[in-house]
Amino acid sequence: MKPSYKNNLIILFILLCFGCLHAMAGNPKFYYRIIAEATPTGYGKVYATDVETPPTDDQYKDVKGTQINSVDVQEQVHAATVTAYLYAKPEDGYMFTHWSRVNNSGEEEIFSWSKYTTDIFTTGGEGPTANSTPDNARIANFRAHFAKKGLVYPVSSDEALGTVMIDIPDNKTGDEVTLTAQADILTGKFLGWRYENSSTLITDNPYSVKVNSSTEGSYTAVFESKETATKGIYCFIRNRTTNRTLGVTGNAKDSITINDRQFKHSLMLVPKGNFRSHNIPATIIKITGEPTNAGGLKGVEMIAQGVSTETLSGSRFRLEKAHDGAYWIFGNSNGFSAYIKDFGRDKRTIEYIGNVISPTLANRLVEEKESQWYLEVIDEDNIDENYFGAMPDANCTKKGKYYTTMYTAFPYKCMDGVRAYTVNKITESGMPNLKRIENGIVPAYTAVVLECKSTVTKENRLLPLSEDVDPIPGKNMLKGEIWLDDRSEDEANYRTLFDPSYMRILGNDAKFSNINLTDPVSGKVLTYIANNTCYLDLSGEENIPDVLDFTTTGNVLKGDVDGNGLINVTDVTVAINYILNKPVTTFIFENADVKEDQVINMSDVSAIINIILQK
Fold it and tell me: What is this structure's pTM?
């Protein structure tokens, strides 16, 4: 990364932008009270606090309300936010079912199925600078619901990793009940149900049980940790109201002030329907953080296209559950909380992407859904819906395959038959030689040419990997570009100017050319190398022609569908899953296409079986 980024991208993920909000004097006070109650009385007890400290057994009560508390905030801020930490504990013979929020009219809204949860509420007075008083303190009212435990009941192996539900808590013999396990998207992965002391895992979820003497007892939902604190998770971050996806645009000179809190140049929001919403590496965000006691993360670091909050600012922030699976994303400083929010302002156009919106900061929530974000995790369990992939130009085709370039700051695994190539040399005939990465795993910061079977992103998926991947050995003449947009009028400091004397770019005719790419959004020929693409660096070569075709090298082993060098029943299973549109990890299209008709079907499966049987 060039040094010019570091001074400006610090504001990328909120933290240091608080400094411009702190130069204000005065400390208005806002008062609040948190109340929690158990229902029905006698079935369980509760505890509520504004401090992240789990209660001791003797602190649980039927009704728990804190004393009137206050929070100091900055002058001109007419609201403050408070986090309520809620804990529920069922009595013997009973089970917890859910938490609800109670409004001023006494109506309830379910917001959490976890015994340990949080909620964030806003408190404030009338007018832009008014204090609240102890007499008009904001009351946050919550209710924990319990039920009698039936003959069949669910248990979570770890409440921090996932929760459990049952549709008929007080079930009896003859009832048919449904057990549902819900893994925490940030920290947990569901493995299966374990009945009583059995070692067998039942992977159905939801799981239906007919209650009788042979089925009654406990069913434990077994979860394993995603190790979010160390490995992290990749996700799209999508606004609950607008469906726009958060991403990185580039660097920014403008500071964020109390009057203008927009991330004008460092962050972008890409519309859900954007034709590139699933193939922009800048929208792939890696999150690491320590799990809280209530389903959130603290000490959160976000990394997008190699930019890390921890590296740049030395600070971290929080994720807390909001409603319906959404989260607040915020930081705290001197009693002031600032949340990323989609205000829908500052619309502009970015090359190769189209229209985007700038997010902003807000301190007043008041149930505003624009400050709530869905985290759509990208992993093997969710890749059918939350996928990242390649989208070649329809004209960039050769022998029935399509080609494009890719450069990312994270490692990934090629799926759906996608092949990745580096350029190791220029052949005697003057063509670049594309050398295939045999295992299909591309390390971070590796410029590659991708060979795809179609132009549809979902059919060319690339799975981000949490583990570090060793660099590709040998020479790679491809170089990559990451950054997207800038208004500093100093593009040369962060972008690569196209030089036709030694650079070649893969054009839409499947050849490396000295003609720069044309932006399909604006129709303009780009002066600089296009974002998230690659160029061929031929600075050490002589007699470079204007246009270079290319050749590819790589082993083809018909029947070796998963690319492990062996042909066995696993390859048959992977091929069948591919045909049935089920998730697959590594799938090599050319190896699976035994019949060589550019279609994978049961004829290929039969041919693979014949290879195994040596027919």
Answer: 0.80
